Amino acid sequence: MGNLKEYEKIVGKDVLAEIQTKVKKLRHKHIVSISSTYQGGGVAEILNSIVILFNRAGLDFGWRILHGSHDFFKITKKFHNALQGQKIHLTQKKKNIYYETNKRFSEFTHIGTYHDLVVVHDPQPLPMIDFYKKKQPWIFRCHIDLSQPNLEVWNYLKKFIKKYDHFIVTKENYKKKLRIPQLVMRPAIDPLSIKNRQVSDRTITKYLSGHDIKQDKPIISQISRFDRWKDHTGTIRIFESVRKKVNCQLVLLGSFASDDPEGQKIYGQIKKKVEKSNYKKDIKLLLLHSDILVNCLQRASAVVFQKSLKEGFGLTVSEALYKGTPVVASNVGGIPLQIINGMNGFIHEPKDFKGFVASTIKLLKDENLRTQLGKRGKEYVRDNFLITRLMLDWLNLFGVYLAKK
Ligand code: UDP
To answer: CATH 3.40.50.2000: does it fit domain 4-188+386-402?
Structure first.
């Protein structure tokens, strides 16, 4: 991650000046964010950059991570799945573990009068608000695809959300019937993080060969946590059809997040599917967390896939587009905010396997098309999904509550 000054070259002086002006109005204000993991997934990705950048800009901005047991995270993952539409057996026991973990965490989190504003990310730490005498605005930022939630879980969680001052979602159709103000805020990527900054061809070759990925035939990749919603097995099916027609390879790079206990099981299922594939020699399944490898792989790929079934936003799409790589992805959640079909990639309904295959083959066979779409993708992300824009969105909201007039 660069110093703020370095972002000027990418987004221009005015954006940086605007950030500085807005931060000045928040001088001596102390803001704290709470989430449930420091690594793995989009929320951690964003916080890892934005917390540092806010502090470098002069805003006193902290980040705390909820501590929870394996059982707790099993329950919150079930909530997450239910909010994305799955069934759940919502027992009193689950509610108790969820609530008691938050109670315990609140005791050593020590939010006090010296905090001027609290931002809570996603449902894991949501009930924290119950355990304080609220002395400042509390904002709840939910990153999940809330378009068709399981109503039992939604109604249970709504009881906590109602106590917040503001509810933030990623997309207009994730908003809910609530009395508190709601706002749409789109996520963003950090163009100077290790994951996204420019790297040389030599570095790309070094990291790919270091993980035994050859560049002798076109690479299709999907970079995702091992999670049912990312539909890795669908990705493999599409690849197999593409591979029948074009000589290419598939790289599935993924890792686990500490707040997602389902990862191991899903990884096992994907591994089995790869082993059974007629094209297993052309499929590489990598389980590791490496930002630089993500960067190199997204750059080296001819096509990046994001075959999700649900997707709050899908930072991986912007990450690939920003590197000039066209993306073929599902028309779900936040993905159509990033891919304009035919302009910077292709989107298909998740069940439209034929469409996925056709678009991928089209791209693999036409380098000019890849270059054209890649160029537009990069511009589109630069104009819409860079972290400085997200900083301004947050500063605007903080300003509503805290700025000195
Ligand atoms: N990611 C990573 N290594 C992996 C898998 C994912 O660094 O092996 C990163 C990915 O680059 C992106 C984030 O995790 O920055 C995933 O965010 P996204 O919004 O795409 O999905 P989420 O995991 O939050 O559902």
So the answer is: yes
